[in-house]
Design goal:
By secondary structure, this protein is mainly alpha-helical. It has one domain (2-284, 384-467). The protein has 19 helices and 4 strands.
Length: 471
Amino acid sequence: MIVHAKAGWRRFAAICRQMPPPWREGALAQWGEALTALYILFTLLPFLLICLPHGYLSVTACKYHMFTAAVLLYAGLSLVLVTLAVCKGYPWRRWLASGGLGRLHGSIPWIAAFLAAAFLSALCSDCPQTVWWGGGRYEGFFTLLSYGISFFLIALWARPRRIYVYALAFSTAVNSGLAWAQFAGYNPLGLYPAGYSYMDAHIRYSGEFLGTIGNADLFSAFLVLAIPVLAVYGLRFRGDKLRWPVLATAAAATAVLLRARVAAGALALALCFVVAVPLLYGNSARWRRRWFALAALAALCLAAAVFCLGESWGGFWGELAQVLHGHIEDGFGSSRILIWRKTLALVPEHWLLGGGPDTLAARLQLYFSRYVPESGVTLRTVVDCAHNEYLNDLVNLGLPALLFYLTALAVTARDCLKHYRQPAVAALALAVFAYSAQAFFCFRLCVTAPLFWLAWGLLAACLRRQERREV
């Protein structure tokens, strides 16, 4: 796989050397695609794999600075390309009329409206010191704007390439290997502080940390985004000899996800499987109806088993059994029920524009403390997000922003149903769907969110080209 990636990189460099100047007609898109390829490869390799200088102690700050620097450079060079082309007499009016900005995917106006609502939220917030750059999670308005800029540019310039799949497979394989070593009690790359390991999770420190991602929930979000892309590529692109290593990487990542015991990730992957089978292999509407009926029957049987036996199983299943019996406690779902209840109580205060980006921690003022007899320490955790991306947007950005965001997802889903037989569309659509499902129990952070917006931008680019019959 590494040899093929090197060959692909050399071929890419040769193409760049042979490209005409960007001000010649038709060349601007080529330069934009080359620049986008560099950004995508940077995100899939160095951004994902580097976790310096202090491992998990600084993973969020490290990846935040890498991401923002990459987006600034990407946007700046794109602006230089366009400016240079226009100054040199590029026929930009003809470009716009023949498929430029005028034919971008339909989700882009809704994303623009989402960012506009986020800007108004930041402008009217009572916490001006936090809303622009963010608090400890760096999720202020400028981070949201960076997500939107990367999405827009990728949707404008990108084309799906095999080298992207190879890069994603390599990063996924590295993270899977690191995770298995951490499960065994080792500390590869010194990601944990000296003397700590995965075995100390919830005993000597709060939470769980895996791979080069960090938080186990975010690690799960990365895997549910990567596994559908790798699996669909391995199953559908039968002419590629590397599809077997890619499939093996998807299988290994699935095993890691199940071993990590992140219920949200497992649920998202199960839903993705239920949706993927009829999309990829359903030959008729009747077959698809039978498949969904079978899936619904299996879900009912599982619910009945949990209802009758779940309490004896303990853990997540025990909590689910309690819910099915009508008994819901605040501590269920790692106290997510309490967090959601407290967060929803804040929504009526600023339902239109929210409290401002990344301001929930200051408004919620909720924390948990727990004495651990095994280590003799008291662990304290401050709640700074809703652990639900949609609820987090509702309380921080307001109802209109959430509706704009959901509409953008709905528009994307509608167009995916028209073109799902195209393999690249199917792979990216399943990845976006799985991540969006998992996001109901997770949070947006610049460690994994750039990957989601990258996948979404690539999907929008594929859909646009499908509409123009270019793919």
